[in-house]
Amino acid sequence: MNFDSLGLRAELLRAVGEQGYSEATPVQEKAIPAVLAGHDVMASAQTGTGKTAAFTLPLLEKLGKQPGDRKLRALILTPTRELAAQVHENLRNYGRHMSIRSVEIYGGVNINPQITKLKRGVDVLIATPGRLIDHMERGTVDLRHIDTLILDEADRMLDMGFRPAIDRILRSLTGKRQTLLFSATFSKEISALAHKFLNNPMRIETAAPNSTVEAIAQQAITVDQARKRELLSWKIGSENWHQVLVFTRTKHGANRLAKQLEADGLTSAAIHGNKSQAARTKALAAFKSNKIRVLVATDVAARGLDIDLLPHVVNFEIPNVPEDYVHRIGRTGRAGRDGVALSLVCGAEHGLFEDIRKLVKVPIPTEVIEGYEPTEPLSRDAGKTNQRRGGGQKRGGGGGGPRRSAKGGGHRGNKGGNNGGNGNSRGRGRNSSRRAA
Fold this sequence. Notes:
Elements: H1 10-18, H2 26-36, E1 41-44, H3 51-63, E2 74-77, H4 81-94, E3 102-105, H5 112-119, E4 124-127, H6 129-138, E5 148-152, H7 154-159, H8 163-171, E6 178-183, H9 188-197, E7 202-205, E8 216-222, H10 228-238, E9 244-247, H11 251-263, E10 268-271, H12 277-288, E11 294-297, E12 312-315, H13 322-329, E13 339-345, H14 350-360, E14 366-369, H15 382-389, H16 414-417, E15 434-436
Parallel strand pairs: 1-6, 1-7, 2-4, 2-5, 3-4, 5-6, 8-13, 8-14, 9-11, 9-12, 10-11, 12-13
Antiparallel strand pairs: 14-15
Helix pairs in contact: 2-3, 3-4, 6-8, 13-14
């Protein structure tokens, strides 16, 4: 469906065209008319299919019909700083020809500049729950006139323990409002949240729950935990990968892996919750501009990273929650473009990966690379047990230092790391013999 037929004003259509879009995605086609008609909406769509525009465009259309008195009328809650920044950027891009003022607030930065912006008057507030609570307690935000509430990536907010904060925020909104809940996945907890706070919502699903985008080529390699880093360096170098987003489970593991990849000759940086917002923004900007080749992240970055044409996502460690896999790999294959999602699976993660296979319901080809044959036994429950207890296998950087395989291929990923597609000069080339796992 063309955007012209969705009932949006000329200023919005002009901005959409300037962003290079003419045809609405399925979630936009269904959600925009529903929002404009005044319905509460509970929408699920695959990551990367345009959910943000599905609520920002009709929100801007509504705000354009209201008096410009700079009373805060719309609140958008997001789980992470990165997602708040992404939503704010989209809102500004689509509202560039309208007189709409928006502000983003989140933790990890000085609160005083945010207070100053709020005092000037604002139409739309994009916030993480924790920082919004801070402002509410200080009396620096006025929520009395909110008539549109949007919960973006609501399932992630629940996963991150924000349910008490969300309940507190929603209970403070006393006036009549329209509530929109958008997420890539649905769960019983999300349905319960919607039942409590949404009024007879219109449910919109554009794909099977927890499904993945067809444009993403999903792959898996079984390999011992201690050799994951070695294999990853070789893979990036030998196949000349650029812009590789790598996910680990822990902050320490992200830091360690980034340092090890740097030692292999691959320019790398890490982002996670312990990094300052300035450091996270700087690392992401360097990654987007190809100044660094590998960005190592924890799941805090699985939502909100919108990188044009991101070609590769790697699960260096398999997520403990299967739904997180959907969000991780959804960073690639966006807007219909092709992408590759590679998972490195050790024996203790076998059970976790089988849970992912059941969730996504699509075949994920799994292989063994010659010279990296796994020796660890497959375990159905070991990975889960270790995650619950916080112990077990080593995590993060892939164990010890460089090791040579029994087949004579040294890891030395830096041979291809900086010089393009030569790969491991003594290792296995791209056409190495492989066998199905």
